[in-house]
Structure formats: C-alpha cells, structure tokens
Amino acid sequence: MKKAGGDYEKNLAGVSRREMLKIMGAGAICTLLPGARHGESSEGFSTSGGEGLIFLVGDGMPLGVIKGMHQIRTKVYGEKGTNFYARMKDPNSMVGYMSTDSLSSIVTDSAPASVTWSTGVKTLNRVMASLPDGRPLKTIMELVKEQGYACGLVTTTRVTHATPAAWVSHQLQRDAEDEIAMDYLKFKPEVLMGGGSRFFDPSRRKDKSDLFKAFADSGYDVVSEKAHLLSSETLSSSKSLLGVFSSSHMSYYLDRIHQPELSKKQPSLPEMTRIALQKVSKNPKGFVLQVEAGRIDHANHSNDAWAAILDTFELDLTLAVIEEYLKFNPKTLVIVTSDHGNAGWGVNGTGPEYNDSTEALKKYQPIKASFEVIKGRLKKENSLSEIKDIFEHFTTFRITDEEASMIQAAMQPDFKPFHGDYVIQPDAVMGMILAHSLYAKKSDGGRVAQVRRGNVGFTSTNHTGEDQILLSYGYKANQLGLNRHVDNTYLFTAMCKYFGIQYQNPTMTEEEAKPFIKTASLEEWRRHMELHIA
Amino acid sequence: MKKAGGDYEKNLAGVSRREMLKIMGAGAICTLLPGARHGESSEGFSTSGGEGLIFLVGDGMPLGVIKGMHQIRTKVYGEKGTNFYARMKDPNSMVGYMSTDSLSSIVTDSAPASVTWSTGVKTLNRVMASLPDGRPLKTIMELVKEQGYACGLVTTTRVTHATPAAWVSHQLQRDAEDEIAMDYLKFKPEVLMGGGSRFFDPSRRKDKSDLFKAFADSGYDVVSEKAHLLSSETLSSSKSLLGVFSSSHMSYYLDRIHQPELSKKQPSLPEMTRIALQKVSKNPKGFVLQVEAGRIDHANHSNDAWAAILDTFELDLTLAVIEEYLKFNPKTLVIVTSDHGNAGWGVNGTGPEYNDSTEALKKYQPIKASFEVIKGRLKKENSLSEIKDIFEHFTTFRITDEEASMIQAAMQPDFKPFHGDYVIQPDAVMGMILAHSLYAKKSDGGRVAQVRRGNVGFTSTNHTGEDQILLSYGYKANQLGLNRHVDNTYLFTAMCKYFGIQYQNPTMTEEEAKPFIKTASLEEWRRHMELHIA
Description:
Two copies of one chain form a homodimer.
Chain A: H1 2-11, H2 17-24, H3 28-32, H4 34-38, E1 51-58, H5 63-76, H6 83-89, E2 94-99, H7 110-119, H8 140-146, E3 150-158, H9 162-165, H10 177-187, E4 191-195, H11 211-217, E5 220-223, H12 226-229, H13 232-236, E6 240-244, H14 253-258, H15 260-265, H16 269-280, E7 286-293, H17 296-301, H18 305-328, E8 332-337, E9 341-342, E10 346-347, H19 357-362, H20 371-377, H21 384-395, H22 401-410, H23 427-434, E11 438-441, E12 447-451, E13 456-457, E14 463-464, E15 468-474, E16 485-487, H24 490-499, H25 510-513, H26 522-533
Parallel strand pairs in A: 1-7, 1-8, 2-16, 3-4, 3-7, 4-6, 5-6
Antiparallel strand pairs in A: 2-15, 8-15, 9-14, 10-13, 11-12
Helix pairs in contact in A: 5-18, 7-24, 16-18, 21-22, 22-23
C-alpha cells in the first residue's frame, strides 16, 4: 500500500509529508492522514455504484481568507499550491459567484443561508428549514432520504449548529439546539459527526434525555474519541454513526496542532470526512454528505487571522481526501462554497510600495494558540505585565503597556469599542494589535518599523454582505448552471437537478415576512453571539 | 429615434429614466445619457468590420464594493438589477477569478497589475511596462498598433496614471507622469481621455513643453470641456482625440452629480466611453479600448464608502453604453475586472440578527460630497463646532464632540492612528464615524441605537491581496479560458489569442528581481500616496 500513500501525498497539491511536518509540527501529519499513517490510504474507498454529492462548506469563509491560506502556503512555506486553487484553475471545474442575502437582511446569518441551499427558499435570520410563518420546508436531505439515498453531516462546530442542522431541522430558532439534536434522532442520518455533546448528554440537556443512548438504541455506533472512531471495529461496522467529540464546538485546528490532548481526543475534519465517505458510499443508491469547516466563521468573528487561516488549511486538506475518494468514485459531484462573508478579511498592503506584505503575513506563523485559548487565560483583573506575559507566551510578540491597556480595557464590561461594530472583545483588540507594526520616528522626520507584526485587517466582528465563491466539479458538474453568478437558493435547484428530483417549496416575499420578524434585543443578540462562537 | 432611446433605457437593467432621475437627481441622467438626451442613442454605433476589445477596469474595485453598489440599487432604490449582475448571471458570460500578486509583493499596486495585463509579465510595484532591470516589455497595445488596429485609453484618473499608462509607457517609475505624457505623444493612441492637464500644460510641466500643442500638431483634436467633446464638430472629425478635462484626476461621480460646475466641464465615464467607441470603431481592422473607472480605488483608500459606491455605479452605467455598442458590433470582446483589492470593503451586518443592515446601508444616500471635498473644507485649526458644522453640511449627520475631536486629531501632523495602517487621514476617521451608530444604555443594561449611521467597514487604507472578479463576454469569449481562476498575467495571453498574435515577453524571477528592488522610504511613499489619490 506504499504507492497509495504516495498518491495521497501527491494529492496534497505537491505538498510532501516532509514539508507538511515542517509546516504543522510533528504529529500534525499523522493527525491528518490516518490512511497514509496506516499505509491504508485507499481503505474503504472502493467504487460504489451510487451517485454521490459532497457539499463542502467553509462557514464565513470569504475570498480573503482562502487567498490568505493560499499565500501562506505558497509564499511563506514555499509549497507548490493548494487543493483549492488546483480545482479553481482546472478547466473542468465550474467556477461561479453566489449571493447570500436572507429574507430579512442584506447580511445573512448561517441559518437562513443554509436553508437556501437545503430548500431553495429564503427565510429570516436565525430560522431553520421553515418559512417565517412556521410552515416547514422540505429539505434536500429529506427528499433524497425518501428515495433511499444515505445522508451524512460532518462539521467542526457542534453538530446542532445552523449549517448542518438546516438540512434536517425545522426549528424556528437556531439556538434551540436541544430540540435540534432530537430532530436528528427522528431524521436518522447515516453519519453525524462533530462537537456538541452537551445537547446529547442527559446531565446537560434540559429534558434530561440520554440522546447518546437513544441513538445507540436506534442502531447507531456512538463514538466520542478519535481512537474509537478510527478503530477497525467502527470502520467495519455497517451501522449508522454518531460521533460527538467535544462538549461545545471542536477545537480550532490551530489548537489541536499545539495541544496533544486535543488532537488525541478530537479527529480532524479530513479524518471525519474520510470515515463519513467510507460509510455513506456503501449505499448502492448514493448519498448526500455535507462537510463543514465550521469555525473559520468563529475565527473571523474573533478577528483571529491565524486561527482562520489554519481552519481554512484544514478545509484544503479535506479537499485532498475528497480527491482520493473521487479516484475510486467518479460518479460524485463536489460543491465547495461559503455561506457568507465575515469581517472583510483582507491582507493589507504593508510598508512602502507594499513590499513588506509577504514578510508581515509570515509573522502569524509563530502563534501557538487561538484567541479562544488566549482569552481563556486572560482575566479582567490581570495587571498589564500579566497581560503582556500571556500574550507573548502564545504569540511571541512583546506588546507595549499601551497595547496591554487596550486589551485590559476591552475586557471590562463597560468597554466601548472605537468602532461600534467591533463588539467581540478583547478578540478584536488583539486582532488589531497583531496587525499593527511598531514604528519609531527617525531624525529626518520619517518612520522606521521597529517591530514588524502581521497585516490581516477586519471590517468588524460581524458577517458581511459580499458574494461568496462557488466551485463545483466532478459528476454532471457541467450540467448544473453553477458556472456563473447565482443566488444561494439556486444551489437547491442544482442539487435537485443532479438527483433528478422535481420539487418546489412554498416561498414568502420580504413584505409577507415582515410581520414575523421578531428581532432579538441587543442583549439577547449578545448572548446568542457568545453561545454562537464559544 | 424615440425607440432607440427606449432601448437604451432597457439596457440599464430595467432602470427607467424616471427612476434614474429619482436616484441621481435632476441633471444626472442628462449628464449620463447624451445619446438619449439628443434622441441619438445609436449615433456613431454603426457596425464596423473589425474585431474590437473593450477592457473595462474598476481600479481597486473588490467584490464588496460591486455588491454594495448592487445592494444600494436593488434594495435601497428598488431597481430590478444592475448591468454588472445581469452579465454575471448570463449563461453566455464567462465568469472567473484572478490573482493579483506582483513580483515583489503579495499585494500589488496598480502599476505592475496593469503591466501583467499589457505584457503578460510580473514586475515590481510602481514599475511601468519594463522588467525590474529596465528591459522594456512589449505591450498588447504596441502589438496591435503594429498590425493596424486602433488604440484608445479612457479613465477618470489622470490619463498619465498607472493603469492606462502601463499599456503604453516603459517608465521605471509610475510617478514620472511628465515623461508618461510624452510617451503617449510618441505612441499616438487614437483616443486618450481623462484628467491630468498639468502634465500637458507648458506652465505646469517641468520641461515647459506644450504637449497640447504637440498633440494638435500631430493631428489630434484636443478638447478640455465636455461641450466641446460632445459637439458635432468633435464627433464628426476623423482625427485622433485627446480629451483632458481636469488638472489632476477628474472629480468623483458623487461630486460631479452635486456640483453643476463640475458636470458642466467634465464628461462622465459613459460619455467618454461612448465617444471613444465611436472613434476607435471607425478603424476597419478593429481596436483595443481600455476604459478605467479609476477612482473607485481612491475612494477606497480614503475609506469613503459612498464615493466608492457611486464611482462603481458609473462603471455600471458605462456597461450600459457597451451593451448598446455590442448590439451594432457583435464582433467585440468585453473583459471586466479589477486590478487589486482595496481596504477590504465590506457591508457589515448591523444590529441584532443583522436585521438593521439594509437600513444602515441606506444611510449613505444623503451624503452630498466625497471626503475629498469635505477634507478640502476642513482645516487643522478648525474648532470642534466648525468641524461638526462642516461634517453635518455634507453628510447630514450631527457628530458628537468626541467624534469631532477624532477628526481634529487626525488632521494634526503627529497623528498616530489606532490601526497602524489607517494612514490616509482624516479620511479613515471620517469613514469610521459614518459606519458607527450611536447607542444609548437602556435601564435594563441593554443598548438602543439612538442614531443609525452606515455600515461599510474597511481593513486599512491600503490595497489588499485577495483575488479579483473576472467577467468576460461577447465575441470569442468562450474560447479564451477566462472561465476559471487565472493569474493576472494570463489576460495578456487571452488578448493575444483573441487577436491571433503570438508573442512572449522575457520574464524575471522574484529572486532575479530582488537586487532591483529599491523600496521607497516611508516618507517618499507617503508623498507618492498623496500624489496618487489627489
């Protein structure tokens, strides 16, 4: 099986394992490539007769972070390319743009965005697969399941989060995650993997139900550890699979790389995708598998450039697994997209003539933890020197007293950000500090960079309204009209067309929806956002 | 000719003149549609036998501002659509993405970006059509001119600015605009229109040459007023045309709409494009016409959302002129793109559930002047109340003392921006204030929006590194490989292919180029940036 391992490596767009180890640190490559590790890269990827659809979402993954990931790997690590760009440049790929407006707003949240894909219908922000007046909408997963296809949902967020849930659940409120877990139990997808054990665990659920037991009783293998997921017992089982590997969201890829106890427990997105494909492809009719790199969004809300880049890197490595799968199963359509922009992610031109831009982007590389981890270590009572020590420990950058004061201020409950929309704190302040080099005045009145830091800028800590990338390839890709600008609702149409299904959900106009808009108060929204990304 | 006028209106993606008048104010529509005004919409647009290429550039026009323009018109003004999106959605259009890295940086400036298009070669930031070591590169305009095609360059910047100039000039420094004007005189494009009379005027040029006279002596019609440009004398002339309508850049579309003396003197981009097409299409062999909406870039450097939206609107209206031209001349290829990102332009989700996003975007509409004009009225000695009055006069927003202090501080020479890269001031501060609603604390601890303002955020006042939109349609568009991700250098290849030209310029690697990088000092760069956008 040595050769298969070699092929696998080639799939990583020319990235050798050696290079990967250099980039990600020892252990990372093993974490990523279980097949290669075991010399079993093609395990389970036998040819199936069915028609498959892999729908890969980078949540809140605007154009900027995709390019940032590509630039880091090609310009900083000297790799030959990325899987994402290899497919974007392939003459056989379909490349397009997608608008993301929801029914209530030119800026969507993940719930109605995912509903447009699953039902072809626009609804209100925060609503699952239902019209604003409560009428449930039939989803693509319900439609294909009726016809005997297998269904799988894989994410790095809680499995009960909006993007996967909107393909199954009809809750009117995305935060009803206890209920969404129950909706999964009723729907019975063949594969369900991600985080969010608190919505399955009887000691954490409001109704005290033991959903792990309920899934097991319904014929599921239930796993909560990576080793168990990757065991031959799980692989060879013909049961459906529930894998829940963390209480809330799974950890950022950045943190899994740097904390062995996390990567020991939590599988990577490529690993979960590999197992999911092995499972759902056993269905002779075919399958729909949604795979979500769900925390690119969270990193962008936090203005955490390096966590966002690495979670996007993990999406790119997931594309390598899919490439390998396609070799054995050419009757598979792959759609890759993002649900909305987030925080206007941009690599800013840096220094005179922008000639320091590459050097500045390199400065994120030594960062050893996400803001989520750093924030977990900071306390609002910290002294400036404590803040400076903690920040330096994780980022290598020794910040000034003034900058430490900014972080300290941003942790206080009455903090008023300079930009009104930079509300997620102290994350946004840390993001700004990391994107800010320190200059000294020269005797001639000019300035010289004393300390070079990074250069990723953000427009806010909120989603943004611009169009998103749309990439599709594989079986029938050239027959679906995805090679142009489409509305997000069109993806439902394209998926129905792929499966030969004719179905039209009811719709509501913006005007008809207005009476049903019950916008949360600012405080409720703040609590939602805390729940959302934490 | 009533019917032709009607057709013209339909070309505006369903925007009636009545709606246009409502949107842009009386006078705007007449400014825009000279053909319709005179009942002569098809004048000059007879069918020519040649092969035409229209290369339309939105300089520094990232995805966000295109969408912002579309959202303003569809969601705020209730228009049915935009020309840009009509073509993006057309199954016959080719839609792709383009990377923009220069030889020296992952963030390009407009000079090497335009050089990639004109020569297929990457060079250093700020260099015209030459390799870093000074070897000149042959441009697409030189290649087609040799074969007898007509060449035209139209822009809203100084005609000597980087984007048009890089298709003709081989200067090693884009700021050598005196020399670039001379290069045009040698090259003799059939049409050259935009701003920048100071590089033609003997009283302003370093060498005191009268380039207006020199162009006239070389057989050009030389015009400097809109009325003269649109006169039947100019239209019927078979001479080449030099039109220079302002000392530096032409005014922002926003300012031309609101200041009759500006729109009296300066033609609009659609008007210049119409005349240019009438001229260059007379060549029986065909033509290359570059048209640039060149100040979207400047507005974005200034974080001036409304000026950027309206200059992008003007680009969209230019597409309507091109639509009309295509009806008579189907043997025309149209390429629409942008040279680089700028300032991470993003419509931020606003308010709880982002449901205030549309309302917030509407708040830019009453703004009556660009930051260029507002800044021209502000003085660093202004009192806070003077600053508040001036800002309110142009924007309708009464800002707080604290906000006025921020503007005041940003006008002082020793100002240190919170973000190191928000260097263009007080523009960036004004942009932040306009994107910042004012909230009051409620008795329950929550907040309520007291004053709703806009919601366009920026990542810096610099260019950004993400990929740009690439749209092409018309003659042979489906044969050029532009329906995927391409490097910016590929556009030269595609244009050569279109004209059946085989040509390969020499190239240098990044490593070979390094000894030739003579990055400006920060102070030189600051002076360049001042010259650049002012």
